[in-house]
Amino acid sequence: MTATDPGLLNLRWSQTLVDALAGVGLRDVFLSPGSRSSPLALAFMRQPAVRCQVILDERSAAFCALGMAKATRQAVALLCTSGSAPANWFPALIEADLGAVPLLLLSADRPPELLGWGANQTIDQQQLFGRHVRSFYAPPLPDADFSPAYLQRLAARAMADSRWPLPGPVHLNLAFREPLLPTGDLLARHAGTTCSSAVGVAAPLLMPTRQAIAETLAEISARPGLIVCGGADYPPGFADALSALAAQLDCPILAEPLSNLRFGAHDRSRLCVRYESFLRQPSPLAAARPEWLLRCGAFPVTRTLQDWLRSAAPAVQVVISPDSRWPDPLHAASRLIQADPLQVCQALLAGGGKPAPAGWREAFARAEAAAEGVARAAFAAIADAAAPSGVLEGTLIPALLERLPAGHRLFCGNSLLIRDLDAFSGSSDKPLRFFGNRGASGIDGNLSTALGIASSGACVALVGDLTAQHDLSALAAAGGRDIIVVVLNNGGGGIFDYLPVAALPEFERAWLTPQTVDLVAAAQSLGVAGERVRSLSEFMASLERALLRGGPTLIEVPVDRQASIAGRREFWRQVAAALA
Hints:
Blueprint: H1 6-23, E1 28-31, H2 38-45, E2 51-54, H3 58-72, E3 76-80, H4 90-99, E4 103-109, E5 135-137, H5 148-161, E6 169-175, H6 185-189, H7 210-220, E7 225-229, H8 238-249, E8 253-255, E9 271-272, H9 275-278, E10 292-296, H10 303-311, E11 316-321, E12 335-338, H11 341-350, H12 360-383, H13 393-403, E13 409-412, H14 416-424, E14 433-435, H15 446-454, E15 459-464, H16 465-470, E16 483-489, H17 507-512, H18 519-525, E17 529-532, H19 536-549, E18 552-558, H20 561-579
Parallel strand pairs: 1-2, 1-3, 3-4, 4-6, 5-6, 7-8, 7-10, 8-9, 10-11, 11-12, 13-14, 13-15, 15-16, 16-18, 17-18
Helix pairs in contact: 1-2, 1-5, 3-4, 3-15, 8-11, 12-13, 12-20, 13-14, 13-19
């Protein structure tokens, strides 16, 4: 066996690349088993600085990596074999693309002489993901004269591309010839290596221009306006700076749950979290027309706030974006400031803006207090009931959040539940961190994403029945993770009850799609503790057991869909009555 033996060459080449990735900060990789990726898989397994997690299903592995990257705010790598395997990453990397989450995609490939000649497990993997990745690299096959300096800089460049100027997935397609690994004693003795010297990469901090700040202050100072914060991974210190700016301008802040501004020790005195109820007709605030709007983060989730922003389109709308994207689907922005949102808030604060006219913010504060009072009364009535009662989203969500320990993480599924979290989560000084897949807003891979979050700490996943069934096989990898999956089973796609298709005779078959899978039994078959509860008191007891036990648990909560619809409408009616 010589240094030019193909198997040994593949391994040394792979170790050089893996060591370089570790040197520039890669700490986690999700592997799916395969043959062609063997040199890279072994290199990762023998690199002590990188934690390797093996997930059989490439689709689930990709969503797990997505969740871990969200939780750690660091790039996470994926590795799989050639053929259709990397295509299973596609849904997760679309979410990473639209959600600006850094991922490093390492697909093994067959050598070019096999492409197009009918070789097994061989497809064209060049530019496989098109415009959904920030960059694509296909380095030459390993050869005896390969350059370690090139691989070190390739690793640094790929990691840098995944983080700036717009975080997202980066694809490296890595071809190997057979034999893939050395054989005999040499393979067993070939030890891993330490991290190589890191190649320093310094990304800039985007600062707002003085002119943009001055012009914005001239438009918003001493005038009635609002700050609207959608979901985003805001920088540390943003909550305090934003709260101080709102105090200076004496304006309300409408903050969604995924903004992570609703829970924490920062000043929340100007925060409004019940807007989904008090911006509806016939509330007087539904007709309120601000003169300016300052928007940060993603465009709002709920149709109520979207419609209210549409009606306020004549106002000056200043959109803050930390990257090159334009979060303005209403085409109403009059100014786009592409800069770090913390720096923008601090610059506006230093500009000395004047407060809004007296009474402007107080109207929102009164509406918030009225809606909060209605919500608390409804929760207390059910919580104090002597007899068991059915569970509604408006009472379960605040009860769940009240019980979670400080610092806990919650992943919320899409469709109706993310809107319920927006409407019913409330606010507290207890720090909690919220996650969701709102890039493409799909129901695919939600449990896997939550498992990825749970790979770095305890997590609760709040999902619907269709979302849970769509990704149920992910629970096969739940062992060893502290995750509680709360499934609100309302018998199908409950969100469609609020859309015009609900009146169609084909509604139940084509849109509602009720399922018959026993989710508790399915979870138990995969080694996950499972319980079904039918009242709020039973749910709280089950939640308490799961928190104390640790590990994975699925709690199914049947919800009467018609009662849920009636409960929401009654809540809106009571808020309107309280405001009147």
